[in-house]
Amino acid sequence: MPTTNDIVLRPRFKKELNEHNEVVLKAFEDSKKEQSEFIVTRLDNHVFIKFPKKEQQFWTPQLHLEIDEIDDKTSMLHGLFGPNPTVWTMFMFFHFIVACLFIAFGAWAYSNWKLENDFALQISIMILMIIIWVALYFAGSIGKASSKGEMHRLNDFMNQIIAKEKS
């Protein structure tokens, strides 16, 4: 599960499989009946692997797989680890609000500077927005770090299903 960049908050990967995509998708579909450690959901060529509700916390990751057909004997698996989509949307919304406030106070500071009025308050709030943005980034990094073990469990489960299909 190596990523090319340690800054990534939602690690992605891809893997070429020596099976037709429907065979692999069927293996994930069948895994629902064979185990109870994960919730496996399939929608077209997408597979979502999650932890049961009772095991989920705020930053609990889930694994989204997209398995596309290349030809009759191979397929491409695209994977994405991330928190619950609701959590991710809220997290990105906070980033958006901070960026908008930074731009708005920057415009206000520029206007006051051009009008030769005091603009210390606006600059202070812009600095506060930078601090909040950095805090949001580190909160995301801490969330990712705290869920690495769970990400490895999801990855191991995925590899187990794929390996089972090969044999």
UniProtKB/TrEMBL annotation:
The chain crosses the membrane at residues 86-107, 119-139. It comes from the Bacteria. Keywords: Membrane, Transmembrane, Transmembrane helix. This is GTP-binding protein. It comes from Seonamhaeicola maritimus.
